[in-house]
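User: Please predict the structure of the protein below. I'd like the answer in structure-token form so I can feed it into my own downstream comparison script.

Assistant: Understood. Taking the following sequence of 478 residues as input:
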Amino acid sequence: MSSTNKITTKQRLQIDRQKMAEQAPLIRNANFSEVNLGLPEKVALIEAERCLQCRDPKCVSGCPVMVNIPKFIDLLSQGNLEGAARSLLSDNALPSVTGRVCPQETQCEVECIRGNKGLPVAIGYLERFVGDWANGKGQGFGLEVAPPTHRKVAIVGSGPGGLTAAGELAKLGHSVTVYEALHKPGGVLVYGIPEFRLPKKIVETEVARLENAGVKIVCNTIIGRTYTIQELQKEFDAIFIANGAGLPVFMDVPGENLKGVYSANEYLTRVNLMAAYDFPRADTPVLRGARVVTVGAGNVAMDSARTAKRLGAECSTIVYRRTRKEMPARAEEVHHAGEEAIQFEFLAAPVEVLGDEKKRVRAIRCIRMRLGEPDASGRARPEPIPGSDFEIPCDIVVVAVGTRANPLLTSTCPGLKLNKHGNIAVDENGMTTLPGVFAGGDIVRGAATVILAMGDGKRAARAIDNYLKGAPTGAGNT
């Protein structure tokens, strides 16, 4: 029996949004354990009861991977955890990931009708709870796979877009091989997002589910160097490129070549994927600064500044040229950073990194900014205030001002049309200018969110399936 028969709308509206327990700020900022501790089952069931089970659920259209949110929440509210897990996993191959890092507050939850009278349903919390419950049951919750089609698909990149496409294509019966440049699968999920936000064990478990469904993952393989797209075309019937946009953007100011200046990509990769926090027991070193400045205000900047604090920085400061209101990072990440004693220097822009006689960072020189008219992004344009220069003493600078497409793959495949930013151009189905070669995620969009890449992967999988149904037997079957 549906939970809608057990509780009235009036009763649902009287239930307050449940809170998730967290590590205490001044304890967690010295360790890499997860900050959010998850909901106990009893609390998750209470939160699920808050869902109004709308006839026209806007939350679904707000989700880039179109999870049937009311269905899995309704099953959860009845105590049918197995049904909730199977429903959720049928729509989302990585629920424990998205339940932790997806910006629900600007997507599904912002569309939640329950939010018109109080706070929206904590969809992300419930997604995490159900995903973790399923993971705790081992591989009993594997993907349901159709009979083999004997069609072969190559996926370039094992980040969220590539893994999502792999899961969808495997469910359709296709043979899927994922090529990953690094030594572990997961892409940005393992090299970019810190352990305290997304434990590596979660990614490993969800990747294992895909492998158990027949997805083959080949690591230490760089497409554009180990193999080219043209070589993959000889072996596979279709290709999905989801290698992200991992080429760092720097500030283009004097002093960026000093010792102690990192791109956020390098800094986080060293710590997250290569265990630099455990040097010298781990092979990869990382400089530990007493005073660290991170430039930028997105989620990557928050991750970098909070990582620096956990590595022992006495003062970890974020420098941003606008105000708190314009910060692109998730509100929760900004809140957590503030709780963890991260400092914020707003309305300031770096103009030079200063070094000592040994060419090591000693300070960063900034200029004060004021906000002018809105720019193309709709945010107020920052304008420098002449004569307002000041210095922030520091020994590490982490630059987190964005990324762009790495040309390694595209430079070896001249048939791929690119846009002016170097991203791959695709049609409405995600196909590139090469027949049977599709692309999605950051390599198409530019730097964006995990869930948008996953949405691209899911749409591409459908398009690839349609393409394979209509295409003659390809190279993978010759």
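That's the full token string. The domain at 152-239+411-477 is CATH 3.50.50.60 (FAD/NAD(P)-binding domain).
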